[in-house]
Amino acid sequence: MDKFISNLNHYFNGVLNPDSYHGFGRRGPFFEGWYYKLINPEGDQRWTIIPGVYIGAKPEDSHSFIQVMDGINCRTYYINFPYVQFVPDEKDFHVSIGRNEFSARQIHLAIENDKLDLCGDLTFDNLSPWPVTWRSPGIMGWFAWVPGMECYHGVVSLDHEIKGSLRFNGRKTDFTGGRGYIEKDWGKAMPKAWIWLQCNHFTQPGISLTASIAVIPWGPLSFNGFIIGLLLNGSLYKFATYTGARIDRITVNDSDVDLRIADNKKQLHIHARRVGGGSLKAPSVSQMDQRITETLSAEVEFELSIRQRGVWQKVFEDSGRYVGLEVVGNLKN
């Protein structure tokens, strides 16, 4: 009974605190990872830092990790740690992996080995979290309450200021005045196909765009589920499967990604230009053995329109750089 109550408490805490760790009492396969996007003021240092844990069906497959991508040079590093060195807080988002610490407000890195020398401290101010309520606990909406989904998604901060510096292989980079973004994923495995896009470097400050479209298993069937958020002038415009929005167009080729999403009142058109990137590891049901390509150098344009008297009227448009972009597999038509 005590174990049941403990697991129930962890379940409710996890749903209502999507930033925190969800793996208490879970058996493998299970993974959880937090994604930090870090860009300095000049834009000539763009980094992805992903701390996480993988719990395998076999004990020997379980481990924790810190994955790093140098977005300028498209170099990636996967630092493996013993599973027991992954220490999460019981309630809040605070994770230690060896001598490294991660939370919504700061990062402390102390990686010093023959593969990578990455050390330093960063703090994050004026975070822009995705709102959490009982009816819609985070970016997943009411889907966050559905148990047993293949993969769950969370946004810790859409946009924030960075302070501090990192030393990478003997070179110190000051990130003070730069911009950052934090999200996370957890579950059994990543989807078999998805498009992911994120940008908070538009011509007008304070704008952030995050978009994720993925194949979602639903019993014997599957569908293209999507969650898109546009932070604009302090307002968060949401387009998601659970809001009743629809995908009017998905066009993907080697050079471009073109999306059009709409509901009864608003429409968002996103056009991104693809470029090469680095190779990151992602979880399957058996191992951290998927290989995906991510770039931090794509470009994006968007148009937001509002329906007025039955006609779409464009109300805002902008273009962004330093875009994080992943295109994996083939989405359902």
Q: What's the short story on this structure?
A:
With 333 residues, the protein is mainly β. It is built from one helix and 22 strands.
Q: Helix count?
A: 1
Largest sheet: 12 strands, antiparallel
Low-confidence runs: none
Share of residues in helices: under 10%
| Shape summary | globular
Looking at this protein, list some descriptive labels.
single chain, 333 residues, mainly beta, 12-stranded antiparallel beta sheet, 10-stranded antiparallel beta sheet, globular
How would you describe this structure to a colleague?
- This protein has one helix at residues 2-16, and strands spanning 30-39, 46-55, 63-70, 75-82, 86-88, 94-97, 100-103, 106-112, 117-125, 151-168, 171-174, 179-187, 194-199, 208-218, 221-232, 235-240, 246-252, 256-262, 266-273, 278-282, 290-308, 311-328.
- By secondary structure, it is mainly β.
- The protein has one domain (2-328).
- Strands 1, 2, 3, 4, 5, 6, 7, 8, 9, 10, 11 and 12 form a twelve-stranded antiparallel β-sheet that branches.
- The longest helix is centred in the first third of the chain and has 15 residues, at 2-16.
- It is globular.
Question: Secondary-structure blueprint of this entry?
Answer:
Blueprint: H1 2-16, E1 30-39, E2 46-55, E3 63-70, E4 75-82, E5 86-88, E6 94-97, E7 100-103, E8 106-112, E9 117-125, E10 151-168, E11 171-174, E12 179-187, E13 194-199, E14 208-218, E15 221-232, E16 235-240, E17 246-252, E18 256-262, E19 266-273, E20 278-282, E21 290-308, E22 311-328
